[in-house]
Amino acid sequence: MAGNFTWHNKEKLEQSTTLNATRQSEVPLCSIADVQLRFLCPDDLNEVRNLCQDWFPIDYPLSWYEDITSSSRFYALAAVYNFAIIGLIVAEIKKFNKLNKEDRGILPDSMGRKSEIGYILSLGVHRKHRRNGIGSLLLDSLINHLTTAERTSVKAIFLHVLSTNQAAILFYEKRRFHLHSFLPYYYNIRGKGKDGFTYVTYINGGHPPWTLLDYIKHFASKMIAARFVFSWMTTKIRQLFR
Questions:
Q1: Catalytic site residue 160?
Q2: Strand 192-202 relative to strand 178-189, pairing
Q3: How confident is the model at residue 15 (pLDDT cuts 50, 70, 90)?
Q4: Is the four-CA dihedral 123, 128, 130, 135 of positive or negative sign?
């Protein structure tokens, strides 16, 4: 029986195989269905510490790891795959009047007095499992937690990020976080000052403070609405007299 054969250049075939193997090692296939979410516990301290030291350039003190693995003050969620932590998110809810000075412009004063804000302290995913939706899964869990009926006072979620961390910035922008402010020399990394950004997204009816343009738009919309009301009233009055 005659057959059709395709001959491959051995060198090109080896290069293609090596490239595919490299890609698979960089982004292994990981089904979200096989990933479990659970809160951190004290037994996770050493594992979480090793991961954070590998992921982030900031040296957190031991007390920070003790807090996020034991205190109910933090929303500390782990993504677990094959009995190992491959990602985590750490956040807390802050009162508006407890925010640092550089962060108080996130909400207008009229809304912020009785409002709360979610603050993401840390969000990371193991290098071998990035670009598989793990970060989005963790972030969605936090957003769902903060948009329940019991959390309507939380009007925004914000975070700080290194200005050079383009991967993180792109991730948050895709998730509808917006640049709020530039923080010069905000980070102290290995004795050197590094710039940072504040990124914000609004939930539960929250919104940023109004600018002059916002006031102009609001006034214009009121004028347009008043014009339609006046026109409607004029028409009704004419019909009444007729």
A1: yes
A2: antiparallel
A3: very low
A4: negative
